[in-house]
Design brief:
single chain; six-stranded mixed sheet; globular; 90 residues; mainly beta
């Protein structure tokens, strides 16, 4: 299981579509690793409910948006504190 704990952007302003890399932080002994968007989308699409974002006492699963190109977002849960754009930008 991984928690995404940071992001890198390909341009500004920050939007989900311009996130280029995600910091996957292992929560069950997995190594921490930066994953580029295409590989992250592929991994999340094959590993349902294995990646989440936490913040402000809440957490949300990460899902794939089938746009062109596809990208990641958190499942809606009524709070923004656990959204990808709430994470540190590196």
């Amino acid at each position: 299981m991984y928690e995404i704990t940071g992001i890198k952007l390909s341009s500004r302003p920050p939007r989900l579509e311009v996130i280029s890399d995600y910091l996957f932080t292992g929560r069950n002994g997995e190594a921490d690793v930066w994953v580029n968007k295409p590989n992250a989308v592929d991994w999340v699409s094959k590993n349902y409910h294995k990646v989440y974002v936490a913040g402000g006492g809440a957490s949300a699963w990460v899902e794939v948006v089938n746009a062109n190109p596809p990208y990641l977002r958190t499942e809606a849960d009524g709070t923004t504190s656990d959204n990808l754009l709430s994470l540190p930008v590196y």
